Structures are given as structure tokens and as C-alpha cells.
């Protein structure tokens, strides 16, 4: 079942260009993802590809100068601001990435939940000592912080769990632990949306992977497709695959375009070795290729 | 936590003693270097005094002794509790300071509480409405308030609330002609309101603007994003987290403002003829040039300001767990 469907999402910020000149700066364009109940979808992309902003858009906590276009649906129902407000913290849970997301002056237990029984249950589940509830965020270790943040997100009964970069800064062992926690949540029936730039972990734990580039999805495919370059469809996914240490560590010429100077047409075209004249016209719409979805005119 | 607090207090008290010594040396040196000559003053206040008597006076006060010797004689007296005699009030300095401080303390604490509560709440309101018209209007009012001098707002209050409306008396701490034991608490409060408001307006806007900044930072922080993602509204974030986070700088600022408070009370007390320590400073510093009282008030004020900073540091330890080393409470 589709828990969350994001279709053709665009996100722009109203900027002041000195004086009274105003313009909209586009940071997400034509983005499509679908998070299914019981599955884990990893969103992979480099820094600045709009991953965190997508999370804020889904939760409805964007700043006031943001303008969202396109559709989002929640179990088939339009995801309106009113519905987002109702779901936040209850059916939609957000797992942030670091200790800075906890109020430094409040004891950890109260931040997880005001219900002590709930805190006790979650701490048991994530092997946290009961005494941790009385500690302040700055007293926690990295691994403890990670488990506290997951506990805080799960204090409601979420049907969608969104984890924003849950592994950077953790040892491989702890990162694996964190991923296992999210896998468990998916296996228990929740839809899990994992924002990450660790493609390797995503391949091992996720069901599907959506590749982000400059604020748009270029390819969505089964995680297993990412074990072999030839099973990938989009030139950027392949470049990403080749850039992984175990696959040769090969860089690609050029840089990701940033908001404000996006090219016309396909956002990857300027760096693409497969580009054809039509790539410069219009962003390619997503289409099905070999069981995956790719936004590329030339993918086979 | 107790041990950390006791250690902090001990360290600060040790620093405080050196501070007071430095203040005493500096103020004594300034008083010695000032053009106020005790002999001239003595001759002025005792017309027709004989040269012989003046000579005796010089000897009695040790005017011809070297300054260092005079300083230690004075410091020894201060330590023994003999702060000298006020020439303006013809009473021991400690008595004058003690009586006047009590009157001033009532005024300063009323003003301080008033500006603290008002400043912090106004700051919180601006924080919640940040960027919207409510915030912009209040912010402008605060900026104007910051630029208004105490004496001017005092005169306006007098003109409006005492002269035009007649709600409050023109001055003094108690009604004139009433024996001290017959003065009621209500009368005292009635007399304190205008000077306290005048004094409070000095710092409330400043505190409000600082609290606003701190709250805007808080609303932009990662933990505010997480709170929002968990369904908390801006007002809920304020009460759950914002107040606690904005309280540390506010407390530090408000307790650190004892010096400005004392400075402001000099103006407020002069305008309202309020018989406090501020008025005594004006009296000691102008006209009568009462050096013993002046030095006494300087030492006393230094203690007062030091106490404010000490309390601020201890409260920060209590409110902010990050400033404490030990984990147990």
C-alpha cells in the first residue's frame, strides 16, 4: 500500500535580490517518490540535492517564504497542511540526525515523551538504561543519542518514519545497528523513508533506492539493482555507483548545479556523456525501464 | 551540584575581595587627586576660623601625611566598621548608607522586578510573532524606549500622572508631615510607583530586545525543527523550550544591570526627591563634596554590583546543565 506518494513536487523560495527585487529560487523540481507500507525507501544523493528540504516539505514545516507545487498523497488522500498538522508527531515521525535536535536544557526522558511508561518501554526496546532519562543531551554518547532520537520519534505510533541522515558520525558497527532499527520498523509494517548519502548501507538494508540530483529524482530502482552498474538505468546513478570506493572510486567531471543557476531541460545534461539534443529542452518525465523508473530520454 | 555551586561562590568571593581592594585604591586615589581641598572647605564652612584651629584640623585629619599612609588608615577604619563621618549629614557614614540603602533597595528592586517581568514577556511576545506586524510595532516601540533618557521619562511621568491626572504624589518616599511610625505600607507603595516605573523603563526595552533575539535564534535551531516535526506549535515551543533557553541570557543581563540600575536611581531619586542612596550620591558629589560618604557609597555600590554578578553566575549554573561538570544533582 502506498503510504506516501509525492508527485511532480517543486519547491521554491522567495528571495529578495537586494532592494525590492524579488524572485523565486527553485530548489526542488519535478520530484517523484513513493513510500510503501512495510518497505524501506532510501533517498540517496549528494549534499545540496534537496534531501532535507523534501523532508520538511512532507512534514509541512517549511519556512513561510517557501512555495510548494505538485501533489502529495497520504494513503490515497491529499496531504493538505491541515492533515500534515494532524499527522506530525503522531502518524508521521521524523528521526533527526544529531544531538543538536534535542533541547540542550531539558532532560532526555521528557523530550522522548511526557508519559514515563512510554519512555520506559522505548528505552527497554532500544537498550537504554533507565537512568539515561534523567540525563541532559550533552551527557549522551553518539550511539545513545541515536537511540534516544529514534525513541523520541517513535513515541507516537508512526505509519511513516522519516530518518534524515541517521548514520554519519557513527562507527560502522553503530551505523549498522541504526539501520537494523529502521529495518525492524519497516518489517513491522511502517513505511520508512531513509535520507542518506551512504549508498552502500542503503543497498544492504533498503528495498528501493531513489537517486536525487539537484533537487529531482533521476532514478528509482530496487536496491538489488545497485549491486551491478549494468542494471542501473540513469547515467548519474551509474556515475554514483562508480564513485563508491569498492567500485573504483572514480569521480565524474563537473559539479552539481545549485539553485539559481539550474540548466534548462535535464539537470544532469551538462555532465552527461549520453546527452542528445532533446535533453536540453525539457526535464525528462519519469518512465518505466526494466522494472525501475528513470527520468532520462536515452536510458535503455 | 551543591559542591560545584559552593566552589563557584568561593572562587568569586576571592575575586570579589581583590576587586574591592582595587576599587578602594582607585577611588581613594581619585578623591586625593581631586581639587577638593579639605582646608578650603573647612574655612568656607567655618567663617572666621583661626589659623591655629585650621592647623589643628590638618593634624587631626592627618592631611599632611603621605597618601599611602592615609589610605591604610582609612582602609583600617573601614575594616573595623568605622567608615568616618559624613560632613553633609553629620552622621556616621555607615548609618547614612544603611538607612538610605533600605529606601533605595525598595525602589530599585521594584523597578528591577517590573523591568525584568515586563521586558522578558514583551521579548517572548516579539519572539512568537517574529517578522509579523505585531513584532515590528513592538520592536520599534522598544527601540524608542531604549533611546529615551531616564530623567526625561521621569519628567513626563510627573507631568502626566502626578500633575495632570493626579494619581500619584509628586515625590518623596512618604507623605510629608506624617510621623515615620504612622506611615502605612499603602502610602509607601503609592509613593514608590512613579519613581520605580521611571527607573524600570531604563532597562525593560533592552531586555525585551535581547530576549527577542535569543528566541529567534531558538526558533531557528535544530531542536525547534524537531519540536515542530513532532507537532508542537510556536507557542508550545515557547513554553516547552523557548522560555528556558531565553532565561539564561535574560537573568545574566538583568542581574548584570545592577550598575545601570544604581546609576539610573541617581536620576530617578533626584527627580522625585526620593531620599535614597542615589540622592545621597548627588548630595555627596555636588555642593557639599562629602568625601567620606562618597567613598563609603562607592565601596557599598561595588559590593552591590558584585553581588548581582555572583547571583547571575550561580543561577546560570542552576539553569544550564552544560555549565556544570558533575552529572549528579
Summarize the structure.
By secondary structure, chain A is of the alpha/beta class.
Write the layout of secondary structure elements.
The complex is a heterodimer of chains A (300) and B (329).
Chain A: E1 2-16, E2 22-36, E3 40-44, H1 51-59, E4 66-74, E5 77-78, H2 81-87, E6 92-95, H3 108-112, H4 116-125, H5 142-153, E7 160-164, H6 172-187, E8 191-196, H7 199-205, E9 208-213, E10 216-222, H8 235-243, E11 287-289, E12 292-294
Parallel strand pairs in A: 3-8, 3-9, 6-7, 7-8
Antiparallel strand pairs in A: 1-2, 1-4, 4-5, 9-10, 10-12, 11-12
Chain B: H1 2-33, H2 38-45, H3 51-61, H4 67-80, E1 85-86, E2 91-92, H5 93-128, H6 133-147, H7 150-164, H8 185-219, H9 222-229, H10 234-256, H11 258-271, H12 277-285, H13 291-319
Helix pairs in contact in B: 1-13, 5-6, 5-8, 5-10, 5-13, 6-8, 7-8, 7-11, 8-10, 8-11, 10-13, 11-12, 12-13
Your description of this structure?
- The complex is a heterodimer of chains A (300) and B (329).
- Chain A contains eight helices and twelve strands.
- Chain A is of the alpha/beta class and 300 residues long.
- Chain A has one domain: 3-Layer(aba) Sandwich (Rossmann fold), CATH 3.40.50.300.
- Chain A is globular and about 65 Å long.
- The two termini of chain A are 28 Å apart.
- The relative contact order of chain A is 0.15.
- Chain B is mainly α.
- Chain B folds into two domains: 87 residues, no CATH class; 228 residues, Orthogonal Bundle (MetI-like fold).
- Chain B has 13 helices and two strands; from the N terminus they run ααααββααααααααα.
- In chain B, a hairpin with a 4-residue loop joins strand 1 and strand 2.
- In chain B, helix 5 packs antiparallel against helix 10, helix 6 packs across helix 8 and helix 7 crosses helix 8.
- The termini of chain B are close together.
- Chains A and B meet through loops of A and helix 9 and helix 10 of B.
